[in-house]
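Final report, closing paragraph on structural work. Over the funding period we assembled a curated collection of sequence-structure pairs, and we close with a single example.
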Amino acid sequence: MSEELKKVYESAVNIIRFAPQFSKVLSVKLKMKGFASADIDEVIERLKEEDLLNDRKYALIYADSVIKKNPVGKAMLEMKLMEKGIDREMSKEIVTEIFREESEDDVFERYVAGNLNKIKSLIDSENYSSLHLKLSSSGFGGYRIGKIKKIISKISATNGDECFDDDFID
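Its predicted structure, as stored:
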């Protein structure tokens, strides 16, 4: 291994030691340090062989973390994975695996609970186009608007709050 390759390798290992990385993100960080693309590619392949860099394993951890901290739908989660450099096929597999453990309806319910005031405000002002946009931008289809009443009623009953009129979205 050349001296330059050793520098790239050591730098990559130090970055990975700090926090797990996706191949694409690690490559960008190493390029920002001024290393040659060919050397970076070679080091990334070596790190994969040594299992110090495993996009699939890290993608599962990342995806699980995303839906637990900031619930998003399947579409948004898939997009976030692709932004990290995970190809479409693997992104779909990861999303399927993650939503096998927790249904999208359960994730959506947590999303509504976490955004309750904003969602209630949009509903009270009858701003359904903004509500649809908010849901869509979080990866939940607009068709879920009809489920919001049920979820908010459930949350309100648990909290002892007032609920919506019966003429709310059905």
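The chain has ten helices and no strands. Residues 117 and 154 are 15 Å apart (CA to CA). We thank the funder for supporting this effort.
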